[in-house]
Specification:
The protein has helices at about 10-35, 50-70, 75-95, 105-125, 125-130. By secondary structure, the chain is mainly α. Helix 2 (about 50-70) packs antiparallel against helix 3 and helix 3 (about 75-95) packs antiparallel against helix 4 (about 105-125). The two termini are about 30 Å apart.
Amino acid sequence: MTTTHPNLGRTTSRRLLRFVAHYVEMVVAMVVGMVALGPLWPADWVVRPDVHAMAMALNMTIAMGLWMSVRGHSWARTAEMCAAMVVPFAVLLVPYWLGAISATTVMVAAHVIMFPLMLVVMIWRRCDYWH
């Protein structure tokens, strides 16, 4: 005979809610990083689209990394998440430098890739993000 715990569904729902809330917290931290750190870059540097793209990625990464630190995540998990944010920008800069894609494509595609990639990292390490 199989018995189930009456609170199991509620516990799973709470864990899922915490998982989703953590993702949203990281996105909010990233936006804060773009807004707060963006003006610190010299204007003559960010006029170049490639430097602007990496500056934006760095701004988002710094803020999100700080937030993960505040929330008690290990340096390893923080580094993985930072990589998930920066790698799409870095990879897309190669075809940009070769003239194969535009600066707009770099910015749009990197953001489109970054968000699901972050989610993949979270699912891969769900034990660290589940509570």
